[in-house]
Amino acid sequence: MLEMTNVGVTIEGDNGSVEVLKDINLKFEEKKIYVMTGPNGSGKSSIAKTIMGIYQPTAGKIILDSTDITNMSITERARLGIGYAFQRPPLFKGMTVRDFLNYAAGPDNTIMHCDLLYDVGLCAQDYLEREINASFSGGELKRIEIASILARNLKVAIFDEPEAGIDLWSFQRLTETIANMNIKYDTTIVLISHQERIIRLADEVILVAEGRISGITTQGKILDDIQCLDTGCECRNNCIKGGEDNQCLIL
Amino acid sequence: MLDTLDLKLLEEVADLHGLPQGAYNIRKNGQAADRKTTANIDIITKKDKPGIDIVVKPGTKEESVHIPVILSQSIGDLVYNTFEIGAYADVLIVAGCGIHNPSSEKAQHDGIHEFFVRKGARMKYIEKHYGEGEGTGQRILNPKTIIEVEEDGIVEIEMIQIKGVDHTVRDTEVRLQKNARLIVSERLLTNLEQTAISNITVELLGDESTAQIISRSVAQDNSHQDFHLNMYGYSKCRGHIQCDSIIMDQAHVTSSPMISALNTDAQLIHEAAIGKIASEQLIKLMSMGLTEDEAEAAILKGFLK
Prior knowledge:
The complex is a heterodimer of chains A (251) and B (305).
Chain A: E1 2-13, E2 16-28, E3 33-37, H1 44-52, E4 59-64, E5 67-68, H2 74-79, E6 82-85, E7 92-96, H3 97-105, H4 113-119, H5 124-127, E8 131-132, H6 138-150, E9 156-160, H7 168-185, E10 188-192, H8 196-199, E11 204-209, E12 212-217, H9 219-231, E13 241-242, E14 247-248
Parallel strand pairs in A: 3-10, 3-11, 6-9, 9-10
Antiparallel strand pairs in A: 1-2, 1-4, 4-5, 7-8, 11-12, 13-14
Chain B: H1 4-14, E1 23-28, E2 31-36, E3 41-45, E4 51-56, E5 61-66, E6 69-71, E7 76-85, E8 90-94, E9 97-100, E10 107-117, E11 122-132, E12 139-149, E13 154-163, E14 167-176, E15 181-190, E16 195-204, E17 210-219, E18 224-233, E19 238-247, E20 252-261, E21 267-275, H2 279-286, H3 292-303
Helix pairs in contact in B: 2-3
Keywords (chain A): ATP-binding, Nucleotide-binding, Transport
GO molecular function (chain A): ATP binding; ATP hydrolysis activity
Protein name (chain A): ABC transporter ATP-binding protein
């Protein structure tokens, strides 16, 4: 189990320090699927980066299976079984998809490159020897990024807007792949998304606003709220609100 | 005879594990050390200056020539090699120089290679440079490569210098006739106080000739790199220069790609980029379990592949 207790993160920027996360308390239980949602800039990716160790907490604790990982490096956390699929994957000029997936799997693991790429909707024959450079579309990069997570046998896998750039025809396969990862490897999945079809995977939905957890709910509740918005029914006033304009979080 | 050190240098510069298959000429410390010719490839010692003539018969297919140079002493070595690649031949030429300098004096090899790639011939030329040795003497390699490519000829060049060369000036000149094609791939790494200068000039003389230069380099420590990549379009031709460098530590890199169109149908493009390793790249690989040093090495290995 992964637990964040009273976690705060302050980042030093050019214009001084910014408190991006405040008093985050979350429990991610084994084998469950969580979806984090909320307005742009609310802190969803910051929570993910703090779990991965990219941001270091300035307050609170993070515990993974009874081990305090609060001050651990990115590498140490990765080796304990945490993985993070970036929202905007970087390019690696010169590095082939094959090499990239091999690095992801680690030196002690053999992987089936073809199966991995098939799972993310890419043909291995067309992609394995290609460099991960600007010739790839955003959607292709995203798929390779997701494949790099699938290549690892993870305890906790975080996907930051995995649907971005993925065409409608491949969406079903993406959601099936993520669900299968959860079932096959007992991986705890954390998805950051605004998409209804992603939210439908969730055991729990975490609502984030202004750097705080503004609510934890079920997919049924939040999808009901979306339905209310679509039909303009009166229960809109009961929707969970947050952000600068106190707008509905699931817009 | 070749000793253990020679064999190690041969492996570094020509990926050879022992003597090569096909034709070869091994030069060691300024002298011919071993040679083999084939029915289609002749190697002749020049009479007027140090060096060899390599003659590939027209129509020769799937044969190779290895011409590695080994320096295990602190000497100055100058050699002139001329290659005649007969019409419609298809050959691989592996050159390269490995220096092991055990002394405080400099060891230098200057190789001047001139190629005539005849009509319809195809040549892949690999040139790898490597230096090592416990001595404080400089290891210097200055290759000059001049290539004439006749109609329908295809030339692919790989120039690689990854380790141990203190100073290099690389001059490459290529002239392309009608429908000739050129692909140049340059990979260069410098560290410590090393300096590297690469001058590549390509003249697209014939209609439908094409050229692509892809240069990638990594400059570490206090090393200096200077690239001058020039392309001239005299005809209905296409050319592309891409020059990427990763800069680290206190290194300096100058990149000057230049394209000149002397015909309205010439289409020439240049791109140049110098930058450090992006933190996102390091973080991504670290999030896959690599240490920062391992991530950096993986990025550089891929970049210079």
